[in-house]
Amino acid sequence: MTSARTLVPRFSDSPEQKAWQTQVTEFKALWQAAEVERDRLTEFVTVLQKRLAIQLEENEMLKAALGSALQGKEEDFRMYHETLGQVKGVFLQALRQQKADKR
């Protein structure tokens, strides 16, 4: 009959056990570092998403302001064109009147 002691080898102080413990410790440290890095990157992505949302909102406001300014300039140009046409008409009428008065 074999005892339980012979079925379960003991590695408590063996070099192999120490190597395994060292490796487990290293893996735990790597795992923790990976978790910290993941959390840091997740936070960074969140910050970038917020910045992007702000930039998109700002772009929409700038587009609206530009559209409004463009409409204003188009209206100014129409009024300028209309005024120029009226001035031209008055000038031509005065020129015709002057020619008629000379005859």
TrEMBL record:
This is Uncharacterized protein. PANTHER family: COILED-COIL DOMAIN-CONTAINING PROTEIN 13 (PTHR31935). InterPro entries: CCDC13. The lineage of its organism: Eukaryota, Metazoa, Chordata, Craniata, Vertebrata. GO terms for biological process: cytoplasmic microtubule organization; non-motile cilium assembly. One of its GO terms (cellular component) is centriolar satellite.
